[in-house]
Amino acid sequence: MSPSASRQAVAALVLAAVAAVAIAGEVKETPEGLKIEMLSVPDGCSVKSKNGDSLTMHYTGTLADGTKFDSSHDRDQPFTFQLGVGQVIKGWDQGLTDMCVGEVRKLTIPPALAYGDRGAGNVIPGGATLTFNVELLNIGDAAPTTNVFKEIDSDKDNQLSREEVSGYLKKQMVAAEGSEGAEDVKKMLEEHDKLVDEIFQHEDKDKNGFISHDEFSGPKHDEL
């Protein structure tokens, strides 16, 4: 190799290294306040995550004060879900697209894209900003998503009444009574009315007594 060609090769390697560092340190922020920081990006990524993919992740979630509230590492069990269909909080659905296997990201998620003012149980307080360190382990094909909205909407008027939601829940609970976790199902049946109230409190954004297609946060598309 000539000295000139050698210098060009070295320059190309340096530029590639600089580019890799720049990508790994990149921080994006969406108009809704979601902050996405690329902590580690593998070389030669040919397949990136997209809506509809089945993603397997390791993650650790913390509150703003650093308190850890959940981690798949502690259980030594990665988490698998379908991206973009409402199976996870909006901050994940929006923050985990275009991700490579082996990539590590830090997501800082505002309350509106997490658990809002209601929080989650005794672990996440209302109005909490959440931070997740996530690592993508695998991208797979997901089974077609069931259109749950369509299944609940028995009169096909494109909105869900309390009666429709109540009937659907009872049907699902009765079907699960003989399965593992039957005691939990029995308890849910006993608290059925309370569960319906909680669903409408969360989903019926305009408080008109119905859950519209736009308001419904569960799976509602036959195709993505």
Automatic annotation (TrEMBL):
Catalytic activity entry: [protein]-peptidylproline (omega=180) = [protein]-peptidylproline (omega=0)
Signal sequence range: 1-24
GO cellular component, one term: endoplasmic reticulum
PPIase FKBP-type domain mapped to chain residues: 52-140
Entry EC no(s): 5.2.1.8
Highest taxon listed in the record's lineage: Eukaryota
InterPro entries (UniProt xref): EF-hand-dom_pair (IPR011992), EF_Hand_1_Ca_BS (IPR018247), EF_hand_dom (IPR002048), PPIase_dom_sf (IPR046357), PPIase_FKBP (IPR052273), PPIase_FKBP_dom (IPR001179)
Domain EF-hand: 147-175, 191-224
Protein name per Swiss-Prot or TrEMBL: peptidylprolyl isomerase
Gene coding for it: LOC117653608
